[in-house]
Amino acid sequence: MIFCIDIGNTNIKYAVFDGKELKATFRVTSQRNATSDEYGVTVRDLLKSANIEKTEIDGVIMSSVIPSLNYTMEHMCRDYLGITPLVIGPGVKTGLNIKTDNPREVGADIIADCVGAVKRYGKGTPIVCIDFGTATTFDIISEKSELVGVVIAPGIKTALDSLVTETANLPRIELESPPSVIAKNTVNCMQAGIIYGFSGLIDGIIGRIKTELRRDDTKVIATGGMGKIIYKETKSIDVFDRTLTLEGLRTIYELNKDVNK
């Protein structure tokens, strides 16, 4: 079994794969000040809840966009799982050809998303992978499975938090589609602005990407916590894939498992 860890700015996603089969997934809040023991106890309890013994874990792979947590999580893996994790970074085989100005700038989460998208949705056609996280990222993959560029926009919750924090009277709300874009109360007004505003942003950017690629057959895949809500409101997203990043991590582990022994 392979234990995958995806450390994001807001949440940490864990997954356990038995070969190619996804056995369990978990999501917890990213806590920059938590100790390795605090993370270890959480992981121990999560695995127990899924009836998975830590002795069944054969390998660990980790992607992270919070460098300050890397040492903590590596320490946790060694102490609680008895395994040194494979951390996505320079020197790790990914099978992804990165065609950006500075490949070292590309985040581990973007690499995992791209690898997962190519693995699940094939080669021969361009792919745009949209990850709805703390930021909204558009990863543009050519028909040759090359990462040719990235677009970064604010995240949905990031935008909502800014709206609530920087105004005096707007409340914190649940994000869901309102009954109408012409809203008649404060909550629906905010929902309309966020949900329909972001769906318009998605369709607009995807339209420009397809125009520059000159490929109307480009596949558009969405992932990330808020992706499912926006997916239903757009015209341009073809598939919502909740576990895409984790599939990318599993695939990268398989590419490196002989080296990692």
Shape: globular
- How far apart lie the N and C ends? 14 Å
Q: Cα-atom Rg, whole angstroms? A: 19 Å
Main sheet: strand order? 6-9-8-7-10-11
What is the CATH homologous superfamily assignment of the largest domain?
A: ATPase, nucleotide binding domain
Short overview:
This protein has 261 residues and is of the alpha/beta class.
Question: Which features characterize this protein?
Answer:
24% strand, 261 residues, 5-stranded mixed sheet, 6-stranded mixed sheet, 38% helix, 7 helices, alpha/beta, globular, Nucleotidyltransferase, domain 5
Describe the structure.
The protein is of the alpha/beta class and 261 residues long. It has 2 domains: 86 residues, Nucleotidyltransferase, domain 5, CATH 3.30.420.40; 151 residues, ATPase, nucleotide binding domain (Nucleotidyltransferase, domain 5, 2-Layer Sandwich), CATH 3.30.420.40. Helices cover 38% and strands 24% of the residues. The chain is built from 7 helices and 11 strands. The strands form 2 sheets. A 6-stranded mixed beta sheet has the order 6-9-8-7-10-11. The two termini are 14 Å apart. The model has no long low-confidence stretch (mean pLDDT 93).
Task: Describe the secondary-structure layout.
Elements: E1 2-7, E2 11-18, E3 21-29, H1 36-49, E4 59-64, H2 67-81, E5 86-87, E6 97-98, H3 108-121, E7 127-132, E8 135-141, E9 146-154, H4 156-165, H5 186-213, E10 219-223, H6 227-231, E11 239-240, H7 244-256
Parallel strand pairs: 1-4, 4-5, 6-9, 7-10, 10-11
Antiparallel strand pairs: 1-2, 2-3, 7-8, 8-9
